[in-house]
Amino acid sequence: MKYALSFLMMMALLSCNAQQNDHATSNGQQEQATSIYTDVSNAEAMQLMAERPNLLIIDVRTDGEVSQGIIEGAEQIDISKASFDSELAKLDKSAPVLVYCAAGGRSKTAQNKMKAMGFKEVHNLSGGYSDWK
Predict the structure, then answer these.
(1) DSSP readout, 1-17?
(2) Any idea where the domains of the chain sit in the sequence?
(3) 23-36: burial string, b at 16+ Cβ within 10 Å, e else
(4) 1 falls in which pLDDT band (50, 70, 90)?
(5) Which ranges of the chain does DSSP label H, i.e. alpha helix?
(6) DSSP class of residue 115?
(7) Can you name the residues that pair with 98 across neighbouring β-strands?
């Protein structure tokens, strides 16, 4: 009896998992999510900026840090402020994003938050603004 119940529970779990993974398109093929989350160098970031006119550039540093300079075209959204998540939520989640901070740590945290929020393409400037200058 115990084995039968265990077997039934296992089958139910497998069935639920199969239903979650079965996002079929109209022609019967399985739809695949195309999300990109990478760390990029300065050269790769410059290439993204040149090739992707809809690229959102997000600076997650503080006001004091931004007063020392900012990448042209960037929008500051300070990761240390309580409004950070709500400011991110206003952005187009389908647009490609380049995110950076001073050295790459806070922007990696921001990248992970954006991934959890459903952003499809987020590139982290691995050396941050310190390497950009």
Answers:
(1) -HHHHHHHHHHHHHHHH
(2) 36-132
(3) eeeeeeeeeeeeee
(4) low
(5) 2-21, 42-51, 63-66, 84-89, 105-117, 128-132
(6) H
(7) 57, 123
Q: Measuring CA to CA, which residue among 48, 71, 42 is closest to residue 131?
A: 42
Sequence-ordered list of residues with C-beta below 8 angstroms from that of 109, at least 6 positions apart, any chain: 79
**Cβ pair 73, 49 in contact under 8 A:** yes
Rounded CA-CA distance 46/108 in Å is 18
Which CATH superfamily does the domain covering 36-132 fall into?
A: Rhodanese-like domain (3.40.250.10)
For the entire predicted model, the pTM comes to: 0.75
pLDDT in tens, 34-74: 899 999 999 999 999 999 999 999 999 999 999 999 999 99
Q: In this model, does residue 126 exceed pLDDT 60?
A: yes
Neighbours of 126 (CB within 10 A): 18
